[in-house]
UniProtKB/TrEMBL annotation:
Name by which UniProt lists this protein: Uncharacterized protein
Species: Botryotinia convoluta
Database matches in Pfam families: Nuc_deoxyri_tr2
InterPro entries with a match to the protein in the record: Nuc_deoxyri_tr2 (IPR039470)
The organism's place on the tree of life at top rank: Eukaryota
Length: 213
């Protein structure tokens, strides 16, 4: 996926290891195509299954006008949809040596990257998905709950929540979503539909604003 913002027809996929990230900071954030979609939620997964973030990213980018790969070999697929930016905060470098403590610079850099991504996002997807979630594992998605609380009262962004049955705080999440008028879904396919509609709506609004200039 592209790590350059020079082409208006390229999608951007930002991860902690992207070329556009330096010390946890997004370089030239104002050059990113909008809408910006942040994928919050559970990142633990079994080796025999794909991360939900990868599945959703592939589906959303398949809708767009242009795609490219990490080696910067772009392929154009003409379509009616404009490019988007997707932020996937999953960091494969995270291991048992990391400490969730301000003294661990790796941890601080990761958290700052996630917070900046949330601040930039036009659409936030909070996915409480995976084997640990379905098994009711206590503590699964703990950081995602913090991020959910961060974005619920935010203005000017769309929030979509997906919580699979069995999540240890499923009832709590559903009550929060109802109180703040946030869509709470139970399948990734439904998330794809809702987020896709949000992208379409964003593009329509931007086109109308451009026409008024």
């Amino acid at each position: 996926m592209s790590t350059s913002t020079k082409s208006p027809n390229q999608n951007i996929l930002l991860t902690p290891s992207s070329d556009l990230i330096e010390n946890g900071k997004i370089i030239y954030p104002h050059n990113l195509p909008h809408p910006v979609i942040f994928l919050s939620g559970t990142t633990n997964y079994n080796k025999d299954e794909s991360r939900w973030q990868v599945i959703l990213t592939d589906r959303l980018l398949a809708r767009s006008r242009s795609t490219s790969t990490d080696n910067k070999n772009a392929t154009n697929e003409p379509n009616s949809f404009a490019p988007v930016t997707i932020i996937d905060p999953y960091n494969p470098a995270w291991d048992s040596t990391w400490r969730e403590d301000p003294s661990d610079e790796r941890f601080v850099t990761q958290v700052n990257f996630e917070l900046e991504g949330l601040e930039l996002a036009d659409i936030v997807v909070v996915g409480l998905i995976g084997a640990d979630v379905r098994a009711g594992k206590i503590g699964a998605g703990g950081a995602a709950l913090v991020e959910l609380g961060t974005v619920l009262k935010g203005k000017g962004r769309k929030v979509v929540v997906c919580v699979e049955k069995g999540f240890w705080k499923e009832g709590y999440v559903k009550v929060l979503c109802e109180r703040f008028g946030v869509q709470c879904l139970d399948s990734l396919s439904m998330v794809e539909t809702i987020v896709g509609a949000g992208v379409d709506s964003w593009e329509s609004e931007m086109s109308q604003m451009t026409g008024l200039v």
